């Protein structure tokens, strides 16, 4: 078997795994905004049901960015993309995308959900007025690993931004979003 054939098989396997990561087929005639709204609501329900402390954290947050179904695929070089909504209280006030690209040891495909809890007015304002915002080192991270739910602890709540990654599907050797860029989109 040549290396080109091996690469082709890995690429097909990755594409198949990514296709298997989708949560549901698209609805005919569904607008982009309606699709994002529906997926955000589903992801928010999953977050509250699976991550201990998420409901309490949401009650304290000034805003929450929910990005459901972030898809990441890679074979040495990797890319990730997803679209979601910024919620202030129960209202979806803006729509955002996340995109990331990287080079390194990444093999496979995955999909997952991300929630960013903005715990201070300043953190929320900085996010809303920036163009091409990146998650900084001031963020605390909680994620589910191997099917076990990671909770949000009180030591993380003192951070201005808390990132929660949940609902992973698929298989990938690297699920980081280092260098991811968040951009406002019109829907």
TrEMBL record:
<dbReference type="Pfam" id="PF04366">
    <property type="entry name" value="Ysc84"/>
</dbReference>
<protein>
    <submittedName>
        <fullName>Lipid-binding SYLF domain-containing protein</fullName>
    </submittedName>
</protein>
<dbReference type="InterPro" id="IPR007461">
    <property type="entry name" value="Ysc84_actin-binding"/>
</dbReference>
<feature type="signal peptide">
    <location>
        <begin position="1"/>
        <end position="19"/>
    </location>
</feature>
<feature type="domain" description="Ysc84 actin-binding">
    <location>
        <begin position="100"/>
        <end position="182"/>
    </location>
</feature>
<dbReference type="InterPro" id="IPR006311">
    <property type="entry name" value="TAT_signal"/>
</dbReference>
<keyword id="KW-0732">Signal</keyword>
